[in-house]
Fold this sequence. Notes:
The protein is of the alpha/beta class. Helices cover 35% and strands 23% of the residues. The strands form four sheets. The protein has an eight-stranded antiparallel beta sheet, with helices on one face. The protein starts with a strand and ends in an 18-residue tail after the last helix. 2-deoxy-2-amino glucitol-6-phosphate binds next to helix 9.
Amino acid sequence: MCGIVGYVGPRRVVPIVLEGLKHLEYRGYDSAGIVFLEDGALHKYRSQGKLVNLEEIMDEVETKSRIGMGHTRWATHGAPSEGNAHPHSDCTGELVVVHNGIIENFQKLRRDLQAKGHTFTSETDTEVLAHLIEEYLEKDLVVAIRRALQEVEGSYALGVMWAKEPDILVAVRNQSPLVLGVKEGGGSFMASDIPALLSSTNQVIFMEDNDLAVLDRNEVRIISLVDGAPRLREVQKINWNAGMAQKAGYRHFMLKEIFEQPQAILNTFRGRLDPESGEVTLPEIGLADEEIRHFSRIVLVACGTSWHAALVAKYWLEKWVGIPVEVDIASEFRYRRLLLGPDVMVVPISQSGETADTLAGLRLAKKMGAKVIAICNVVGSTITREALGTIYTHAGPEIGVASTKAFTSQLTALFLLTLYLGQVRQSMDAATRQELGHALVALPAVIDEELPRLHEELEGLAEQFIQSRDFLYLGRGVNFPIALEGALKLKEISYIHAEGYAAGELKHGPIALVDKDMPVLALVPPDDVYGKVVSNVEEVKARHGRLILVGSVSDEHLSSVADHLIGMPEVHAAMNPFLYCIPLQILAYHIAHLRGCDVDQPRKLAKSVTVE
Ligand code: AGP
């Protein structure tokens, strides 16, 4: 998605904006731009491609300006080009806007404005906003913005500057995230996401839909876009320092985040799980015990990796809570006939908390009276503010587009939810709860122990597959979703086609694919379907498939069958989904890196998909 950074204060604006945009690069973009105000005029610079191209331009620009904005664009309307890069100006060049979101009625607005004599210089929906505000500009920028946006349909996080009001920036938020930064004596900031602010301040304000903020060098003032009434918003202290959002010495954010998983899992259950009794407390869930006992079923809604976490949770919830669980891909959920009511618990799962399809599903579920409890990694994100309650994963900022620590943190939150619901509905006896609680408490240390070995071992294995064109991942039962997740990791960062399949489905078609060139990775942990998966693996072997098996390090039979065995320690079977996704993440990482792919910012992908 697009990235926005704005600043007004005592310091020079260009370095601050460029630094902020650098921390937003992970969002995926194809062009960048910056604007600052000096000597009564707006000075705008834009470039296609990576941010470094804009930085090279700005190296030649002398300015002492203290107010400005910057933008990284992920194209939605209009090809990636300098001309389509933000900021966009009105006809006079005295007003500029930067925008993230989609203006749904921009074609009509553009036609109307052209009929009034406005000339457009880009193919973007965003430029319409500059000319529309210009249409209403008289003496007061805020008034003009409020009147113009009444005609706009769609989503926007918007930054506006006007040369005739040289001391302020205006920020507007509607269905697209925007955070403000404040700093005593240090000026005011706006940004699309927290990492852009952290090197300057950790005091942030999460704007709500229809908030309009006026930023000057001393303060931030928020009013309603609709009626202009003042709106009070809490300043929140973010305990992520800028360093956390850096790579901390790792080659890529993704590798750093893979290695952060033990801590992320621990941080997610710490304070919620009694390590002795296995008892769970989830006060943030916002549900009374009676409501929890009243539920007739649970619906989990998510996209991508978060959907895989939901698929794993279905096995846990049905096994230990004894309640029917449906799992929906959010983009399907929102368009089918939903049968929901107050007796249904709907759980949207999202790392970013801004995924448009998941957010739409949340809103539909709420409208139908279901109890909506989110699982999310970003404090103050839209999904968390619209849900009844949120179980936060405490993974810290996940910068790599490919989700890793957020995924295992989501599994942790879902496991806690399983224990909690089992506790309240008394579907699980204390001994089982204690056994499961102990298994989770022991897990981070086990993963921590295995990470360096797997990282080294799998780099060698990866070299054999950098030319592969197809990959098959097999799993059964609670580990079938992990096969799906492993396949997604590989395809999204290495661009190798990979499919995850239920191992038992092999004979219903996919086995036709198997030959000596087709790597087949099968998850074969020592669990209750072990024997079944071994038979599936034998089917592959008989057809000369290249077998990579992930199973117990002491399993001699697997060693004899596999072309390569990725040996794993034996843990409680309930922990296998956490443990077995780790080698799949690392294998995908190494293959992608060895293929020279951009591991942290894979082509065509964005960290959070805030459009349909
Ligand atoms: C996972 O590696 C991908 N980046 C993608 O599938 C992601 O999980 C999906 O877009 C959902 O994002 P969310 O968790 O922020 O809602």
